[in-house]
Description:
The complex is a heterodimer of chains A (253) and B (308).
Chain A: H1 3-19, H2 21-47, E1 49-50, E2 53-54, H3 55-86, H4 89-93, H5 99-128, H6 136-160, H7 164-180, H8 193-199, H9 203-216, H10 223-247
Antiparallel strand pairs in A: 1-2
Chain B: E1 3-13, E2 19-29, E3 33-37, H1 44-52, E4 59-64, E5 67-68, H2 73-78, E6 80-83, H3 95-105, H4 112-121, H5 137-149, E7 155-159, H6 167-182, E8 186-191, H7 194-200, E9 203-208, E10 211-217, H8 218-225, E11 227-234, E12 251-252, E13 258-264, H9 272-281, E14 286-293, H10 296-307
Parallel strand pairs in B: 3-8, 3-9, 6-7, 7-8
Antiparallel strand pairs in B: 1-2, 1-4, 4-5, 9-10, 11-13, 11-14, 12-13
Helix pairs in contact in B: 3-5
Amino acid sequence: xxxxxxxxxxxxxxxxxxxxxxxxxxxxxxxxxxxxxxxxxxxxxxxxxxxxxxxxxxxxxxxxxxxxxxxxxxxxxxxxxxxxxxxxxxxxxxxxxxxxxxxxxxxxxxxxxxxxxxxxxxxxxxxxxxxxxxxxxxxxxxxxxxxxxxxxxxxxxxxxxxxxxxxxxxxxxxxxxxxxxxxxxxxxxxxxxxxxxxxxxxxxxxxxxxxxxxxxxxxxxxxxxxxxxxxxxxxxxxxxxxxxxxxxxxxxx
Amino acid sequence: xxxxxxxxxxxxxxxxxxxxxxxxxxxxxxxxxxxxxxxxxxxxxxxxxxxxxxxxxxxxxxxxxxxxxxxxxxxxxxxxxxxxxxxxxxxxxxxxxxxxxxxxxxxxxxxxxxxxxxxxxxxxxxxxxxxxxxxxxxxxxxxxxxxxxxxxxxxxxxxxxxxxxxxxxxxxxxxxxxxxxxxxxxxxxxxxxxxxxxxxxxxxxxxxxxxxxxxxxxxxxxxxxxxxxxxxxxxxxxxxxxxxxxxxxxxxxxxxxxxxxxxxxxxxxxxxxxxxxxxxxxxxxxxxxxxxxxxxxxxxxxxxxxxx
Lengths: 253, 308
């Protein structure tokens, strides 16, 4: 195992993150604060409670999920796309390091960064609403698994992308709508029956539901189903990445 | 000398059906400088990229110090450093940090003293904390070399190291390559510049269309294939070469004031003495005599034309 190689990629990626430290942290703090001002205070005051949880608190798990899913995907996709774009990928490919170690470096750094963002959002949210986490262990499990799976997903996008548009296209045009429609800011029970059925096909719905359960003990679907959904998604990403490295798809000719 | 790199029947066909490497075999001895010459698309970069693990071979074997480059890729790659043709660097990173990254990537523990040595050797120590984007093109190329040397490789591949650099920097680069060889590093470089191969290489490989047309010791090659030309300038112009000199296959210059005679330096008899006697017998008066040795460029051009 080339631990030194993993460490080198990890440190390199984290250094890149800390170069834009201010921007990396201020952006989620500002956007989270805005969500609370708009949804929590302005609209939330008209909604009241959902499943005995104040609307302001209800949206916290969804907000964290929105941030960590998009950030994990973005961090990991840029992490691998940049060396491809600049050409420095030659160094990774010619180094005595295998695909698993490369992923550990890139995905490990993306997970760390998005976890930090998640914690920042949680702390910011705590300034606006009173929060009690009923199942902290499961909250951490969901948080980590989501960061890992979406970082893997981001890695795939970074390998697949041929230009910067494509790197941003999936998070913007696919991920964000799915997170919004996955119950980030509402309970599925608030939707008409037909939309409730359609939401069941949105994989992100299960993640948000499970994560919300870890906070409040209430969810739209069972915790087992949510865990299964994230496990399936993670396995799919691992399978795809294994195939990428086996075939050299868009990395090696 | 024992070979440090062995390539056996290496072929590479891209998915576009382009044959980039066609059954290449070669051995590179430890401590030598091998120059790979060839026109664009000859397969030089594909060859070194395949040895370094960037391109998957279609068939064939590569061994580096006895390690199979596919099966024992970790052991093989630890011994190799690669300097690409393009200036591919992270512009925002500092010089020293990018070297630390390269060293770590190749599984070596942090050793800033060694990196200091490398940077000093390449006159980059003063720039260690500078972001790469602030460096000149020549410095960036030296940073790439420093990165390739950061993990103490025994074999260094330089892909067109002097492409697009000025004459002064090119000579600096040649001096650097020689000093690397002196420190025991085996150097394989690709180049378009014949004079580069002539100046620094021990052996020369000529590639074209994925094939290794020739691989030979530079001196032997020049001796073996090097023709010498004798230029005999005449006092007065002539209209035609006298019949008595037809056996020498002389060429009359365009101005009709000189005779050109090609001869093989390795032959027992060059025929010069007899030629000069026969010229005198033919009544021609000599003005001057000079010789010219054919260069690698002439050999290279001849080889490519022969294979067409």
